[in-house]
Each structure stands twice: as structure tokens, then as C-alpha cells.
Amino acid sequence: MIQVFVTRRIPDAGLRVLEGRATVAIGQTDEERALDRSVLLRGVREADVILSLLTEQVDRELLEANPGLLGVANHAVGFDNVDVAVATELGIPVSNTPGVLTEATADLTWALLLAVARRIVESDAYVRKNKFNIWSPNLLLGADVGAGPVGHKKILGIVGFGRIGQAVARRAAGFDMEVLAHDPSHRDRVEAFPGVGWSDLDELLATADFVCLHPRLSPSTRHLIDETRLGQMKPTAYLVNVSRGEVVDEAALVRALREGWIAGAALDVYENEPGLAHGLTDLPNAVLVPHIGSASKDTRDRMAVLAATNALSHLLGERAPHCVNPRVYETEAWRKRTGRARA
Ligand code: GLV
Description:
Elements: E1 2-8, H1 12-18, E2 24-28, H2 37-46, E3 47-52, H3 60-63, E4 71-74, H4 84-90, E5 94-95, H5 102-117, H6 120-128, E6 155-159, H7 163-172, E7 178-182, H8 187-192, E8 196-198, H9 201-207, E9 210-213, H10 227-232, E10 238-241, H11 250-258, E11 264-267, E12 286-288, H12 297-316, H13 332-338
Parallel strand pairs: 1-2, 1-3, 3-4, 4-5, 6-7, 6-9, 7-8, 9-10, 10-11, 11-12
The structure holds glyoxylic acid.
């Protein structure tokens, strides 16, 4: 019997937390490969708890596959890959790894923003192709991120003002920018944040020089940035997405970049990950990285430790430190699953 089924290999720091405390099986140890759905289903049927990666769709079929399943510990802060409503209905706690990846993801947002504005990827390719023959005043000109010699502050627009959006805002102080934020569920938070102004989405898109996306993926944020929204942005503006690919209509973005509706985009995430919209890789004004928002060594170790800690709590039928559906602990379905008597 497996106690914790780890869908794909996680950093050793997380496996060490489980060592000696639970019997563990790993579905896919080749880190470059996906896990077959049949292996995933078998693992879920045989395990008490699953420790899933964001690449696994934890849907109704999977959640119903094992009436004894005690929890899903997702190795990510996002949990849109898990059908939390169904998990709650079935009495299954779901947990995530918030907090530990905030700073690394905000760092990557800024790395991408600077890279696309200052054409770092194109410049790197230029040097590697031995094209750098002489310094030249018009070579690879980009956009200022700070005020620059013209002197007027650039506007950073942050869509989604959770932990990561706020960490991005904090970093903007060093660039002396005007910062606007939009988050319909957290207007108070935006207004209380020093140096950040509330903006509705239309105004933010129409005025920002840089638009960074940090909302959680939900039905209301799927394709939040579509053809119409891209058309509202300034032709000199840049879009950075480090949230979830589905927040942007990627085919519309390709058109916007190709036809110059906006100046550039930098993406960490994709609508049909790892697939890319047709034409995206041909665009010089797009910077593309493979979903590495939280990919620093220390951050990924901490995420693995947190996911493993959550998994052990699920296994013991205890409240997980980072449960995203805590209502589940009040349900009859959870009591039945864990064999607990009504309190
Ligand atoms: C990464 O995308 C995460 O949600 O942790």
C-alpha cells in the first residue's frame, strides 16, 4: 500500500520530509516527461494521499477513483489544476504552497519586464551570432523602464494584487514608477498599499507602460486579456504574464505583437502549456520562458517541503497547514472518509 503518491519527481528536500514517515511512490521519475494518465489513475487508486504537480489534472474522475483518498497536496501556489469544488463535495482536503514563492516569482516578473523592454534576448542572440562588429548609436534600442532622460515617470499596471502582485509593486519603488493596480476582490488592499493607486481595468490598460498579470485563474479571469483588451493598450506598452497562460487569449496576443498594437510581451506561462500559439516563437518582440516563475533552488526546495508537510497532515487526517478548502473539515463526507466521529 502506498501512503503518498508523488505524481512526478519533486526536489529531494520534499522527499526527505516524507522519508521514514510514509511509504512513497513516484509516478514519473524522468523530469522531462509527463505522467501517463493511466499511471496517475493507478497511483491514486492505490494511495492514501496524492502529492500532485500543476501538470496533473486532478478532476472528478481522479478524485472519485479512490473512496479512501485523504487529501491532495498540490506542489504549487496555483491550484486551478485541481477541481476543488468536487474535492470539497467528496470530503477531500486540497492544499497548496503559498508564501514561499512570492519573492522568486516577483523577481522573475521584473526580469521579464526588463528583458522585453531592453531587448535582452535579442541582444544576447546578436552577440552569439557574431554580429557585434561595432558599437552603434541605433543598435537594439529599447524602452526606458525608469523615468529616463525624458523625465516623466513610467506607469506600471498590476492586474491581481495578491502576494505576488504586491511584491512586484514593492520592487517598482526602485524604478521611481507610478504604480496602478486592479483587483476587483481586493480594492481595500490596493488603496491601503503605500505608493499604489487603484485603477479600473480599462484605465489601467489605456495608461500603463507595463502591464503585469498576477490574477488567480478562474472563470472570470480566463481570457481576461483578449483582443479587445489588447486593443486598449498603448502601442508603446509591454505585457508581462507570470500568472496562468489562460488569462491571455494567446492567438490574439500573437496578432497584437505582429501588428504592433503593443510593443512587446514577456511570457512565463502559456494557454495550452507546453504548446504555444502558432507564430509566437517567430516574434522578436516576445520573450518566452518555460514556466520558471518560482524556479530558484531555495524556493523550489521550500515548495517541496511545504507540499510534503501538507501531504503528511492529510495522511494523518489533520488540518493541513495550507488547505485551500478548509470548509471540507466540517463536512460529513470528510468525517466518513477519515472515519471520524462527529465532534
Ligand atoms: C506555479 O505556477 C505555481 O502556481 O506555484
